[in-house]
């Protein structure tokens, strides 16, 4: 119609990175789907990370299941400098919500990340099918 103004769709909620998405994105891994990489690059400045993901990554490194070049602290500090994110603190509210949700499995990392997304009103970026399958959890998957 003549003179009609079309508004762009409203921006979705900011993103919370699942641990593997954060590792893949900052590490330049080809395992990260192209569409997710674009979404994260476009959302830079509105991307959140739980300190629990930092703990999870450093734990994997300590167990020899992940190599963080330069050591855990150096790698994390460099990653946060190269791809700045907002910190989604693990609060009492997050801990309580993690206890209340049912994901059908007992992985504490998944429970804390899902609860963090819910408490902070974030969309969890993940390719974890168990998380994507939860209809009550807002997710962006590749």
SS-based class: alpha/beta
Number of helices: 7
What CATH first level would be assigned?
Answer: Alpha Beta
The name of the CATH architecture is 3-Layer(aba) Sandwich
- Indicate the low-confidence ranges by residue numbers: 5-10
Q: Can you tell me the CATH topology?
A: Rossmann fold
* Widest sheet, order of strands: 3-2-1-4-5
What is the overall pLDDT average?
Answer: 92
Structure at a glance:
With 142 residues, the chain is an alpha/beta fold. Helix content is 47%, strand content 9%.
What report would you give on this structure?
The chain has helices spanning 19-27, 34-42, 51-62, 72-82, 92-100, 108-120, 129-132, and strands at residues 15-17, 47-49, 86-87, 123-125, 139-140. With 142 residues, it is α/β, with parallel strands linked by helices. It has a single domain, classed as 5'-nuclease (Rossmann fold), CATH 3.40.50. It has a five-stranded parallel sheet. The N and C termini lie far apart (36 Å). 32% of the residues are buried.
């Amino acid at each position: 119609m003549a003179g009609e103004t079309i508004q762009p769709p409203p921006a979705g909620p900011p993103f919370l990175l699942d641990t593997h998405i954060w590792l893949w994105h900052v590490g330049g891994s080809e395992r990260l789907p192209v569409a997710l990489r674009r979404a994260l690059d476009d959302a830079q400045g509105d991307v959140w990370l739980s300190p629990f993901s930092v703990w999870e990554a450093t734990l994997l490194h300590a167990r020899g299941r992940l190599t963080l070049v330069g050591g855990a602290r150096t790698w994390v500090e460099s990653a946060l400098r190269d791809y700045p994110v907002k910190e989604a603190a693990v609060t009492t509210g997050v801990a309580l919500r993690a206890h209340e949700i049912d994901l059908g499995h007992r992985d504490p990392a998944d429970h804390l990340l899902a609860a963090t997304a819910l408490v902070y009103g974030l969309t969890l970026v993940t390719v974890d099918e168990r998380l994507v399958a939860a209809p009550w959890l807002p997710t962006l998957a590749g």
